[in-house]
């Protein structure tokens, strides 16, 4: 059972995280049926995977955020404690955001593993909910089980916005990489959110 | 190289003369052709082997005269005073040296003269003379030589003659000769060698003569046995053609009869036959053998006589022709026995043939095998004396059924002590107390009993819990457990595939036992299990091993079964001998959790490993390979021996298969019923706080259970609804235990940081980072060691707090009441997680914890201290090292760093942690 998939930058590798506690890297160039590499360090299902230009970030139910640095040949494993539901890189590549089932988002320093910020207020206890960083790394966003999407100020950690998307659980969330534009999925629908001033062409 | 060749030559043994080493540019000499090769004698003379008188090629001096100087005429000087001797020249004077040498014509060596030469030599000479006489121009002349020649009579013959002996007579007293019958009776059998024909003939001739009464004769001469060795190269039995017969046969004294013994007509007949074949002169003797052109090459040395042929058609043995060879058996057998007697051979004097044949030796039939006999010996488990063990035995028999009837039929020798005692009606000996119950205090036992009864009432329907409790408190009753195990395993093992899983490879015998055990399990045999265990082991050992086997089988099974798809642990099970273990393992989460609680992210929560990405992956990511030389992919692994199953139970700390949905339900239904695993989806902060108490409890329970040979199995099975349910929980439970064990103690943690924080803040961070790495590896290795000796470590724990454990355990069954309610929810709760009894425990623990939070923690640490003795010692060693360094005031960096901070060690580790 695959939880998450992700292309790398050049779309030559598909990285998948699955419930069998492995992250698998599949080659897109060849038709090889078996993965290029299996990262089986996780002790529990892998809930989330993100890929940067030279890193693979995986969050696992065993409560760890693992960052495989291909360039340095290192594996950094940060213990968060609670099962990780979602991880994501910051745009500047300095931080990693990890959402966990204790209804907390944690911003970790990628290099040292130190905690840079904690964001609470939403509810995330059972579902695999997504977290996002805004296009400028100014805000941290997360889906919630109460039907809202929450945004926090990244630096201050204060709740900036609670966006009522629906009544059910907001199951997926995605932020536009360059534009202030948000995609949210809830109750079988996908919603696209833009700022008020936005004028469609 | 040259030196070595020299030394080689010294060692070599060489034969013959080496060829002259070839000079550079020298041409190889042409070998001398064979015809030009000449032979020289000892004096260098060519082609000279013999003297002139013995046919030498050269005589004298190179075929000239006597010496090199030539022939010197002998001077003849004779005067009146001195007359010259008339020298008579003998033949020797004209002979060469070779003629006088050993092989010459006149050897000078001492030889036996004719007088003393052996008779055989004479015979040969005689023969030669005879032949010569025959061949000579005037035949028969040699006969006169005999007459004329000097008689050479040996002294023995001379003496005999003086005593009245004459040649041709035998030696001995004269005897009266009995008149013989004219014809030898055909019925008389002649045994042994037939007499020489000539002799017998002679005797017959003599017999024909007139034999007066009272005349004695000398005994017949004895033909001496011919002992002449075979010197020629003729075939055995070959006799050269006698020239006297062959040449003069036709006109000679006797007629030449090549077919000796044949009658006239037959010889003619055969002779005609031969002639028709183109044979000349009828000289077809053995002397000529068989020519190449002749067809007959059968027995060429056989003398063919007509007597070999039957000439008359008649019954050879009268009375025997009635039946022929197809005679009835009885007749034939009777006949044969008689004939046997006939052919026995020469009957010795004083012996006579037995009239009755001896009775044949009686052959006894082998005993009939009992119907239930099995030709395979198996060892009955030796069960020590004791009441319980007897019951156990009974139970065993009942369970097997077949065994029972066996035992009833068995003789008294087959009974064991307890059975005999039972029959005799004696009371059992008070042996070593087999039950843990007896070690417990009265009060505890009472309580246990109460609990037992209560639970029995509730769990009437369920038999398993009862059994499990029995097995928990009775170490001897392993078979109860075993049957359960079999129930669990039987079905799954049935479809188990390969058996290359060798958890006991270290101990081949044990491995063998294990394999046979698994096989029997697969075949669904229930009772055979005990037979595979070593009979020489004690009951305790056997129980333990059985447990181990089950565990191993279970573990292997669990990874292979369909259930295994739900598990993450399938990493190492198929390795044969060694397990690949990640070199670095993530630190145990316990101290991390505390760090997380304190929001001390960073170093405490971070593990850093060397990780080798696949080359292709690097390529696809456009990243240079960080380890271009290494062939490793992933985390570097270390090979470790697979000592035991337990060893690699620790290696992976897999998590369970509980789906979020079920867990959610658990949470909703029973908020207090929290799974203890921190890696659950639904772990809350509270849960984390409880973690310590849980693990503590588990360790206690485990120690308890371990001492009773029933580790953690009963606990899971009590709530289990079926094998499929209990299996995962069993595994996870175990895992937890392992985790518990492998968790580094808090004081280790503190020790690391305390020591480093003593130092300057700037260096301390680096130091701690450095120190943490080695220690983690130490922990890893230590954990595996600990697993090997779980008893020792656990017993320490048990010693520490027996008082607390017992009540805890006794509470368990009672808490099941609550459980039964909660169990209804959701799909198949893994019992270990849904168990309400844990909840109770936790609460209790929590209370205590709240009361004396710090105290318990310290206590906990204290326990751990004991558990991790090695580790602590190592740490202590570290400290000591440092101290000693300080004392010696050596100039190493460490000491200089730490020197300044000796006084500031007053900081409590707690504070340091909080920092």
UniProtKB/TrEMBL annotation, chain A:
Transmembrane segments: none annotated. WD repeats lie at residues 1-27. GO terms for biological process: mRNA splicing, via spliceosome. Keywords: Cytoplasm, Repeat, WD repeat. One of its GO terms (cellular component) is catalytic step 2 spliceosome. Signal peptide: none annotated. The keyword Amino-acid biosynthesis does not apply. It is found in: Cytoplasm. Coiled coil: none annotated. InterPro entries: WD40/YVTN_repeat-like_dom_sf (IPR015943), WD40_PAC1 (IPR020472), WD40_repeat_dom_sf (IPR036322), WD40_rpt (IPR001680), WD_repeat_MORG1 (IPR051980). It comes from the Eukaryota. Belongs to the WD repeat MORG1 family. This is WD repeat domain-containing protein 83. It comes from Aramus guarauna (Limpkin).
From TrEMBL, chain B:
Residues 202-211 have a biased composition (Acidic residues). It comes from the Eukaryota. Pfam families: DUF1604, G-patch, HTH_TGH. One of its GO terms (molecular function) is RNA binding. Residues 656-673, 773-803 have a biased composition (Polar residues). GO terms for cellular component: nucleus. Residues 169-223, 410-433, 656-915 are annotated as: Disordered. Residues 839-883 have a biased composition (Basic residues). Residues 679-694 have a biased composition (Basic and acidic residues). Residues 152-172 form the G-patch domain. GO terms for biological process: mRNA processing. Belongs to the GPATCH1 family. PANTHER family: G PATCH DOMAIN-CONTAINING PROTEIN 1. This is GPTC1 protein. It comes from Aramus guarauna (Limpkin). The gene is Gpatch1.
